Structure formats: structure tokens, C-alpha cells
Amino acid sequence: MTQGHDARQDDERASLVEQVVRREWDMFQRTTNEGGRAACQGNWPMFALMRTSQFMPWPTALIGSYLQDLTDAEHQGRNLVEEKYARMMASTDPERYRRDIAPYIPALDDARVARQERIVARQLDWARDFTARFPHIGANMRVLTSDQDGPEQTSYETYLRGELGTYSPRTLALYEEFVARTQERGGNIAQQTVEWTMRLAGAGSLDDAERAQAGPSCEGTGDAYAARP
User: What are phi and psi of 224, to 5 degrees?
Assistant: First the structure.
């Protein structure tokens, strides 16, 4: 495979990611928040950085499939970003979710839920491994598990589960393949996402960042894992 071919593939992936992030941003702007418009809804640079970091490790076919999901959703009058946050409430506000939300979003059957939970378990293991190796970086990211959810924080587990629930069957199957292939190669999606965040932000290596964050830091300055918002 030539360098030119690799460059064309990288350009194609970057173009698709840009389209995905723009579509998500548009949906994010139309997402309603109980307490009024959230501050992060006005922060395009951070949104673009975090979401681009999430998607750049993905294979081109997976990115294209998710872009089609977003296009299809627009045609159906659905807002996948809003649905993602709605699904998170199954953990953060279960009573309200059962009463006010679950009846109005697409239901997921037991087989679909089981497939998603296998992905969540695998990615939680990767996130734990990353945090063990880079504890100071990890301390500035999302809490990991749903039992840590609270009014002011949503865990990586809950976020990922909510996001997976919005994928079409086609996109979920491609995502499963991505996770399986990453595992076969000994990779780690959590680490890949953080590496892309640093690359796009013009930062140094993970080791450099870990040393830098070993000193005093501001809580919440980083957010990899689930690439918020």
C-alpha cells in the first residue's frame, strides 16, 4: 500500500468525520435542556475537539455508516444527540426515564441490549487499564461507572450505553467489528481517543501529559473516554 493511498484514506476519513461532527453539532443546538441552554452548547471548539477525537480512530466504513444514521434521523424528524442524552437518564433519573422518555424513543430488544453490554464491558476494561497507566490524565476525565452517576456528572459507562443505543443495526454491527479488531491487535480505544485529543490540541505524548498533570490541576479540564459532549 502506497503512502499516497494511505493519505487519501486519511483525507476521506477526516472529511467524513467533519461531516459527522457538524451534523451532531446541529442536533446538539436543537437539544433541549431542563435547566435551559447548557453552556457547552455554545462551545463549538471544545465540541469539535472532543467529538473529532472520538471518531478519528474509527474505520472509514463505520464513520460513513454513522453519518448515514444521522442523515436518516434528520429525514425521520429524530435528533440522535437528544436521544443519546435521553437514554442516559435510564441511569441518572430512572423513574422519569420510565415515565416520560422510554415510551417515546425506539425500544431496544434483549438481544440488542446484550450486544451493547458486551461492548460496554470491553470498553470499561480498556478505560480502567488506561487510568491505571495514566492516573493523572484519568483523574481529569469522566468517572467510569454508572454507580458514580450524579446530578453534576455522567459516567463513561452511562454515556457509552446511551450512545450505542442510538446506532442503527448496521452501525452497531460495524462498531462491534471495530471493537473486536482493536482487541485482536492489542489496542485500546480509550487510549486512541485520548491520543487523538492531544494530537488535535497540539499537545505532546501521553507520558508528557501524565507528568504535566501530576502537579496541581483543575478538575474537569479533560474529558476523553466518551469524548463529551
Answer: -70, -125
Phi, psi (rounded to 5 degrees) for 187: -85, -175
Q: 74 to each of 17, 22, 35, 168, how far by Cα in Å? A: 17, 13, 25, 14
3 state SS of 153: strand
**Structural domain harbouring 115:** 3-213
* pLDDT at residue 219 greater than cutoff 50: no
Instruction: Count the domains in the chain.
Output: 1
**What pLDDT band is residue 3 in, cutting at 50, 70 and 90?**
low
- pLDDT given at position 2: 55
Q: Which three cell numbers stand for residue 50?
A: 472532543
For residue 34, the tally of other CB atoms under 10 A from its CB is: 7
- State the pLDDT at residue 213: 84
Q: How far apart are alpha carbons 138 and 127 in whole angstroms?
A: 9
pLDDT digits (tens, 9 = 90+) for 172-198: 999 999 999 999 999 999 999 999 999
Say if 220 falls within a structural domain.
no
Query: Packing angle between helix 60-76 and helix 80-92, nearest 10 degrees?
Result: 90
CA 116 to CA 101: how far, in whole Å? 20
pLDDT digits (tens, 9 = 90+) for 22-38: 999 999 999 987 666 77
Q: Is 78 helix (H, G, I), strand (E, B) or coil?
A: coil
221 belongs to a structural domain: no
95 exposed, middle or buried (CB, 10 Å; 0-12, 13-18, 19+)?
exposed
Residues 228 and 156: their CA atoms lie apart, in Å, by 9
